Amino acid sequence: MAPLKKIIFALTDIVCVTFALVASIWLKFDSLTPAHTQYLLFVIPILMPIGLAVFWLFGLYNRTMRFISLPDMIAVFFAVSCFSAVKLLSIYFREGFPSLSSVFAIDWMLCLIMLGAVRITPRLLLSFIEISPLRNMLFTKTDKAYKRVLVVGAGQGGETIIREIRRNMNLPIEVVGLVDDDPTKLNQIMLGVRVLGATEDLSKIVAEHAVDEIIIAIPSAGGSDLRRIVQQCQNTKVRFKTLPGLQDIISGKLAHLQLRDIAIEDLLRRAPSEINISEIAAYLTGKNVIITGAGGSIGSEICRQILPFQPKALLLLGHGENSIFNIHQELQRNPALGNTKLIPIITDIQDYDKLLKLFKSYKIDIVFHAAAHKHVPLMELNPEEAVKNNVIGTKNIVEVSHLTKVERFVMISTDKAVNPTSVMGASKRVAEKILKCYARRSSTRFVAVRFGNVLGSRGSVIPMFKQQIENGGPVTITHPNMIRYFMTIPEASKLVIQAGAYGKGGEVFILDMGEPVRIVDLAEDLIRLTGLEVGRDIEIKFTGVRPGEKLYEELLTASEGITATRNSKIFIAKPEEVNEQVLLDQIKNLVEAAHSANAASVIKCFKDIVPSFSPNRDMIYNKDKQERATSEADVVKLRVLSN
Q1: Distance between CA atoms of 370 and 169, rounded to whole angstroms?
Q2: Residue 279: other Cβ atoms inside 10 A
Q3: Comparing C-alpha atoms, which of 219, 366, 345, 216 is closest to residue 290?
Q4: pLDDT at 88 > cutoff 90
Q5: Based on the domain organization, do 375 and 405 belong to the same domain?
Q6: 416: annotated active-site residue
Q7: Residue 375 phi/psi, 5° resolution?
């Protein structure tokens, strides 16, 4: 509340309290005697400052009258009750006063009514204007024509949209109706707006009411429900927008009323993942935390989500100066920064000596290892680089963490590490094995978290599709049966941080990725969301499976089982046996092959370490083999769901 408004409300309260005290004596005795007047002249100058102090202590002048609600009225109740107790005591300060004890029940009631009325009246007047026809009369149509809007969702989201539109009288928008699939809401009126039908009636309602735009106001809607609603909206041929999803609102990325176009990520939306704040805070708050690959998609999001837990220091380690600069600048502006010290570090995880010096200097407690080469086709062409970064780099970070007695180490892994057909997948599987070896003999809790594709990451399929659509097509897909699991970057990062709290050492955590998505369906949805037609405006072209690429990704090997955790979306893979000495010898051979830039030797070494590695470097697709892999993946999926 602005200072001037506080003064006005304080003066109003003084008038109300004075009137209530005088009126209560008058109502009790039918008149004011000289003794009453003497008492009032004595007590009012004393009680008014006390009353204002009491009201200030109860926060009555720090509340927005426009949004007054039940908690605010409860505060008024307690403030008035406390002040009445002070007034009751005042009658004993001076002998000869008539007994006024019974007056204070009336005084308390009048004070409560009057102070409450002063505060709730502005809200009632605004609400009346919002739902009354006066709103349309007060708005002048001379400059702009009304936009006739239909709101999908007669819940809290719809209510918020209607209130905001009517609160801003300069908006040339008229809400003509609501749509909701709950049959009990049909023909009900919310804030003066009628529920006209269900989403299946959208085309009919749009035509009958000359609707110009549809607003989807269901932040809690899942991807499948939103996909169905979007299809109905597309049939109407009018523009449509949406409120942000709950995940975006909770994370603070988007404001509740920030309308935007439907994004492909919305159609893959899942219910927000639950995490245990206290468990995470217990291992992050006040600690020195380092994130490798901090400028990447996952690394930067982990930084954002860790910051509210107030680590002592957050070290942002990366090889690319631009990405580290950008995330460092962003975090410096983050309101959650508090006393956390941000330290940007440009270095290569292949530089063992630099890492060791770094970890000793900053006394690192927690490591999130997100640095990795991830692009499958590029690593097929440069297998030695996958070894240097994903294997040697990981081994360096792990060794340094072990030597400096880091408390916890969480590595980002991938579903491509399961029965790998690519160099990238094989390199991440080797990295998982390295963690398992060190976990046996180290005080550091080494864990890996394995999951599939994330939406919107740099170089991923969705940004590529968007660019191709902007260029007029074609949208290129390697195979019509290509299937992938998808998860949003914020959800994946949140579950990675939660998994770090569960780790005891040596676990490979598996994230439940939900239902698999056909890439061709994803491309078609993206084309339609831009207002174009598949085939007519934008062509989809199939280019053939690339080296190292699978049609179907798997989260578990056939020999791995899973164990549930306290979080329904996090599982633990059955541990595999690893002979440490044999593994270290094999890695030594792999490193030598990489340094000699001998691709064939690198592939052979990978096969020695990961027997399930089936390199697909000649772009030959074995249909029978893929069908068997699909069958195994379906069995694994059923196992995950059954648990």
Answers
A1: 49
A2: 16
A3: 366
A4: no
A5: yes
A6: yes
A7: -80, 115
**Could you tell me the residue range of the domain that residue 206 belongs to?**
145-267
Q: In the predicted model, what is the mean pLDDT of the chain?
A: 82
**What does the pLDDT average to over 345-363?**
96
Residue 421's alpha-carbon distances to 287, 373, 379, 389, 614, in angstroms, are 39, 16, 12, 19, 5
CA distance 191 to 131: 5
pTM of the full predicted structure? 0.66
- Residue 443 corresponds to which tokens in the numbers above? 């005080």
The answer to whether the peptide bond before residue 383 is cis (omega within 30 degrees of 0) is no
Given a cut of 70, whether residue 253 has pLDDT beyond it is no
Q: Are residues 331 and 439 in the same domain?
A: yes
Kindly report, residue by residue over 135-165, the tens digit of the pLDDT.
555 544 444 567 889 999 888 888 888 877 7
If asked whether residues 408 and 305 sit together in one domain, one would say: yes
Query: Do the domain assignments include residue 631?
Result: yes
Does 396 reside within a domain?
yes
Reported residue count of the chain is: 643
**DSSP sequence for 542-596:** E--PPTT--SB--SS-TT--EEE-SSTTEEEEPPPP--HHHHHHHHHHHHHHHHT
* Residue closest to 137 by CA, chosen among 147, 129, 149: 129
Q: Which one of 287, 374, 388, 416 is the catalytic residue? A: 416
Are 287 and 403 found together in one domain? yes
CATH number of the CATH domain containing 609: 3.40.50.720
Q: Could you tell me if residue 390 is inside a domain?
A: yes
Calculated CA dihedral for residues 224, 226, 228, 234, nearest 10 degrees: -150
- 103-112, 267-276, 464-473, 576-585: range with lowest mean pLDDT: 267-276
On whether both 200 and 334 belong to a single domain, the answer is no
Q: Counting Cβ atoms within 10 Å, is residue 577 exposed (0-12), middle (13-18) or buried (19+)?
A: exposed
Q: Is residue 550 part of a domain?
A: no
Could you tell me the CA-to-CA distances from 352 to 220, 355, 395, 443, 444 in Å, in that order?
47, 5, 9, 20, 18
Q: Cβ–Cβ contacts within 10 Å for residue 480, how many?
A: 11
Same domain, 255 and 293: no
pLDDT at 622 over 50: no
Please tell me whether residues 351 and 423 are part of one structural domain. Answer: yes
Q: Would you place residue 585 in the very low, low, confident or very high pLDDT band (cuts 50, 70, 90)?
A: very high
User: Which of the listed residues 267, 289, 310 is the one where a domain comes to its end?
Assistant: 267
Domain count, the chain: 3
